Amino acid sequence: MKFLQRFFASGTLFIWLSGGALACSLLLIGGLLMLIFINGMGYFWQKDLVQLTLNDDTRVLGEIVDTQRIPDTVTADLPDGQSRIQLKVGNRDVYGLDFRWVDEADIAQRDWPKDVIAFERREWGNFYGWVTAVWDGESRLAEGRDIAWEVWYPFLEQAESLHEEIHHIESDVIGAINADMERARLSLKTLELKGDISQDSADSLQQDIQQREAAYQEQIQRLVGLYERLNRYRVTLMDVTGKEKTFPVGGLVRAWRPNSMSVWDKTTMYVENFWNVLSDEPREANTEGGIFPAIFGTVMMVLVMSVVVVPFGVLAAVYLKEYAKQGLLTRMIRIAVNNLAGVPSIVFGVFGLGFFVYAVGGSIDQLFFSASLPNPTFGTGGMLWASLTLALMTVPVVIVATEEGLSAVPREYREGSLGLGATKFESLMRVVLPCAMPGILTGLILAVSRATGEVAPLMLTGVVKLAPALPLDGQFPFIHLDRKFMHLGFHIYDVGFQSPNVEAAKPMVYVTTLVLVLVVLLLNMTAIALRTRMRKRYAGASV
Fold first, then answer.
1. I want to staple 458 with a disulfide (CB 3.0 to 4.6 A). Which of 29, 138, 357, 463 is the partner?
2. Is 282 strand, coil or helix?
3. What pLDDT, on a 0 to 100 scale, did the predictor assign at position 439?
4. pTM, 2 dp
5. Are 432 and 415 in contact (CB under 8 A)?
6. Residue 111 belongs to what H/E stretch?
7. Cα angle 233-234-238, degrees, rounded to a multiple of 5
8. Cα(first)–Cα(last) distance of the chain, in Å?
9. ∠ CA 347-353-354 to the nearest 5 degrees?
C-alpha cells in the first residue's frame, strides 16, 4: 500500500502516461503522413498494362489498381477465399467508366503486350490501345495496327508546340489587348460620368479602342489558323475489343508504351509526371493535369496574410504588454482575444463576406471604380479579402505568442537600456522587440500552419474551382489582389467530394494533399530558420 502511495506521489505514472500518449500521437501522425506519401507519390509511377482474357473470351486491358478478397467466399476448398482485381481500363468515352472489377476466377489468361500504347488525352481521360490509321484531313497517310511509332508521333510533338503557341496568344497577347481595351473604355466612361470630356479626348479614346479591337480580331484570325493546323492530323485508335475511334492529334497530350519501358525510362517519366503536376494547369474538372494555380494561390494568400497579421498582432501585443495599464479592462481584452481564437472559422468567413467584401469592397467600388459598375471590382470575393479574413482569424495567435515573447525578455535589458539614456520607444524598438523576435516568429509559424489549410472562410471570400488568371502577372499593376484564386485545400474538397468520377479523382486528392503538406512544411521551415537565426543572435534572452 505504501509502495503504491509513493508510486503515485512520485508522478512516475503520469510521466509514462504522457509519454505513451505522445508516442501514440506520433505514430498516428506518422501513419497518416506515410499513407498520404505512398498514395501521393505512387500516382506518378507508370504501371504496366495487362490484357486479360476471360473464360467467355472477353478481353479487358488496363493497369491493375487494387486487389480485394471477395466477401463470403471462404470454403473448405478455398480457405483463403476468392479475390478480385480492379483495373483502370480508361477509354471512358467508349465504356462509360474508368475502372472495372474482374474476379480472378474468371480470368483464363494474362498477357502484357509490348506494343500497347497509353494515350493521355485532354478530355475523357486515358485511352489504352493501338494506332490503326493516320489521317491528313480526309487523306489516309497510314493504316494497320503495325504502324510504326515514327509515322505518327512527330504529329503529336507538333501539336504540343501548337498548343503552347495557342496558350501564349490566348493568355498573354489577347489578355494584354483586352486589358488595354478595358482601361480605355473605363477612362472614356469615367470622363463621361464627370461631364468634362472634350470631343478630342473622346475621339482619341474611341480611336484607341478601335485599334485594340482591330488587333484583337487579328489575333482571333491567327488563332483560327492555328486551330485548323492543330486539328488537321488525326489518328484512329483501337481498344482491346476492336472498337475504333478517331481523334484529332491535338486532343492528345502524349503517348507512351509502358510495357516496353525500362526502369530508367519509367523513372525519367516519373520525374516528368511529378514536375507536370506542379507546373501545369488542371484539366478534366480538376481531376487531371496540374495544380500550379492552386499552389500559387495558396502561397500568395499566406504571404499577404502574413504581411497583414504580423504588424497588427505585434502592435496589439506591445500595447497590452508595454503600454496599457494592467487592470480589469486589460484582462477583459485578453479574455476576448483568447475567445476569438476559438471562434469557428466559418464565422470568420461570414464576417469577411459581410464586412470586407460587401461593406469595404462595395464602398471602394463606389468611390474609385464607379465606371466599372454594376460589375464589381473589389465588391466581390478576391485574394485581398480572403487574406484579411484569415489574418483576422489568426491574429489572436500572434498576439498571445508575441506577449509570451515580450514577457521572456529579461527585465534587466529594459532597465539597462533606460539607464543608458534611451527612451522607452527606443528601448522597445532596439532591445525588447529584437529579443522577442523568436516568440513573434513562433506566432507567425502557428498562424501560417492554421491559415494554410483553412477552406471554409475562403469559400465565402474569394476561392474558386478554376481561376481564369493568376493574381500576379505581367500586366500593370502586376499584383491583382481583387482577383479570385485557387487554393490547395479547396482543390482537395472539390476533387474529393464534388467530382462526378470519384474513383478517377482519388489519386489527385492524395497528390494535392501531399503538396499541401509540403507547402505548409516549406513555409514553416522558412519561419523556423528565421527564428533560429534570431535566437542565436540574441542568445542572452531567455526565449
1. 463
2. strand
3. 83
4. 0.88
5. no
6. strand 107-111
7. 155
8. 44
9. 90
